[in-house]
Specification:
Length: about 600
């Protein structure tokens, strides 16, 4: 069916504005700009309702494609998180993970409003939304959330309710990136020296950000000393390892920060500045800043790996073990930053024979020969505490099903496992996914009264007996030609090559394994987008319009390659359009026209 070229230009413009997070009203200006540049387009002065309707149809096509991919995958995982926007309204972010041509794909699904943050409200909202999109909840095999009691509660949490009522094959995971953040935060809380260290960085941020004059002085000092122009960062506990960014900013412009604090303290007689100057020019603090940056740089690298959209269950253990090994190395060996800092420090002797330290020629306070030993004890204590907390947060016994997947699909583990250990894991996975399960949905609540109880039988996801029969063939591959591959690569080959050649049931199991979501970071990304879109200038955005805008932005479709034809056809098919009205010059409404003579 032919489509008007002018309509294509209009839809591309609306899509571009939404993907670049421009206010909707800017579309008219963009259309005018295109006319000035010679484009043949007569649409003008489009109302906010018209533009919002176009956004809706663009979003509808995007979600249709996404839902089709989810259905083709057979199984999928859900990631959810709740947040409060600028107007103190609760929202639930829903992201989905599915397998497309052997590749795990993570995408944003929707942002919906919540009446409250209770578990049953979240479950009802999620199921209603999935029903609207005609997505089968029984095919949900994984749920990733943060560690909130509402989500992870063992009796009435969201995961427990979903599994007992709708998705019996679901396994719930506590986001691995959140777990790492909690492990790091807990480690600092248990040491008074490090608590003071964190508090001083908070004080430095609050002090410098409270005055533009102080910030300007810091920039001038950075120019003078030829250090990078960096602002002081807040060591925010709820951001991914926010302390690392705060420490890095100070480390990279250490001389400028100290000189600025000294200057402000002398010129303004400011006691806060003087106190901060004394702390940051302390010999022990200087070494501690470099040491903490080494540690938190390593943790930040791990956090970035754990936040990847494509990460699968089999990759986590190696990443954690590698980081624990590097932390062990830091117990007795200087990292890059600490070595560089020590190289810039000179130990000198004054006329009285007393030793003192200087950093790039500037004298440091409270130098002692015993400081190195004190720092050594601190680093050993902190690193040991970090290792302990990370191991506790990533206990293997917390993820029995994931351990079974590793015993079956990870070649290195299959080849080093005890006799019959992998066979037992195959049996366990076959029992979990290969038997019909009954779910019970009780309508109503305890306040209004329980109305009725529905029991539904959910079909098994794979054939248990055939899975066991196929195992010798897969095991031969894992101990032979596939022994050097990762679990992810094995799953991809089974899906792409062997799904119809003797490993039918294992191809289903591999799709389930790749679907398992172990992080809910994508929800955090959607909330960042939400807060950028619904700001103080756009605080009246309705939930539906906000969801449409987030969906367009999170789709990550380049506007250059966006094809609007299907969205245009859908827009035209919904009702007869009087396009001539959309091309008229703006005419103010006659206020007297409504007054009866």
């Amino acid at each position: 069916m032919p489509v008007d070229k002018e309509d294509l230009i209009l839809f591309r413009t609306v899509f571009y504005a939404a993907s670049e997070e421009l206010p909707t009203v800017k579309v008219n200006s963009l259309l005018e700009l295109q006319r000035l540049n010679g484009a043949s387009i007569t649409y003008r002065n489009l109302s906010w309702d018209t533009l919002s309707e176009i956004q809706k149809y663009i979003c509808t096509i995007i979600k249709r494609d996404l839902i089709e991919h989810i259905r083709e995958s057979d199984f999928y995982a859900i990631m959810i998180d709740e947040s409060t926007d600028l107007t103190v309204q609760k929202h639930l972010s829903i992201c989905v993970r599915y397998v497309n041509k052997g590749e795990p794909v993570t995408e944003f699904l929707g942002n919906i409003g919540l009446e409250d943050g209770k578990a049953h409200t979240v479950v009802a909202a999620l199921i209603n939304y999935l029903n609207e999109l005609q997505i089968d909840a029984s095919k949900m095999v994984s749920l990733a959330t943060d560690g909130a009691a509402t989500m992870m509660g063992k009796k009435t949490g969201v995961g427990v309710q979903l599994k007992s009522k709708y998705s019996p094959f679901l396994i719930q995971t506590h986001c691995i990136a959140h777990r790492l953040n909690l492990a790091v935060s807990d480690s600092i809380k248990k040491d008074k020296v490090l608590e003071k260290f964190r508090d001083k960085f908070n004080s430095l941020y609050n002090f410098m950000s409270a005055s533009s004059n102080r910030t300007t002085k810091l920039k001038k000092m950075q120019d003078l000393l030829e250090e990078p122009q960096l602002t002081i960062k807040e060591p925010h506990s709820i951001r991914w390892l926010g302390l690392r960014n705060a420490v890095a900013a100070v480390y990279d412009s250490y001389n400028s920060v100290c000189a600025t604090l000294s200057s402000i303290g002398e010129s303004e007689n400011n006691t806060t500045s003087i106190g901060l100057f004394k702390y940051f020019t302390d010999y022990k603090t200087v070494l501690l800043v470099a040491f903490m940056l080494d540690i938190h740089q390593e943790l930040a690298d791990l956090s970035l790996q754990l936040q990847k959209q494509s990460i699968v269950f089999s990759e986590v253990e190696a990443l954690i073990d590698g980081t624990l090994g590097k932390l062990e190395h830091f117990k007795s060996n200087d990292g890059t930053c600490l070595a560089e800092m020590k190289a810039c420090i000179t130990i000198e002797t004054d006329t009285d024979g007393k030793k003192y330290a200087t950093l790039n020629g500037e004298k440091l306070l409270r130098y002692k020969d015993s400081t190195e030993n004190e720092l050594q004890r601190l680093r050993e204590s902190y690193v040991s505490c970090l290792q302990k907390n990370i191991k506790q947060r990533f206990r293997k016994e917390d993820s029995t099903i994931l351990n079974y997947f590793s015993l079956v699909l990870e070649p290195s583990i299959v080849n080093s496992s005890r006799p019959n250990e992998s066979e037992d894991a195959v049996e366990a996975l076959g029992m979990f996914y290969g038997d019909e399960k009954t779910v019970t949905v009780i309508h109503g609540n305890f306040e209004c009264g329980l109305q009725e109880e529905n029991k539904n039988v959910v079909d098994k996801l794979l054939d248990r007996d055939k899975l066991v029969q196929e195992w010798p063939k897969l095991k031969g591959m894992l101990t032979g030609c596939y022994k050097g591959l990762s679990a992810k690569a094995v799953c991809q080959r089974v899906i792409q090559i062997h799904s119809d050649k003797g490993l039918v049931e294992f191809s289903k199991l591999c799709r389930i394994g790749l679907c398992i979501a172990i992080t809910s970071v994508e929800c955090e990304r959607s909330f960042s987008t939400q807060n950028r879109l619904k700001n103080k200038f756009r605080a009246s955005l309705k939930d539906e319009n906000l969801d449409n805008l987030i969906s367009i932005q999170m789709s990550q479709i380049p506007f250059i390659s966006y094809e609007p034809r299907r969205a245009v056809l859908l827009w035209e098919a919904k009702k007869k359009r009087r396009k001539s009205r959309l091309r008229q010059e703006y005419k103010p409404r006659d206020k007297m026209a409504k007054i009866c003579p």
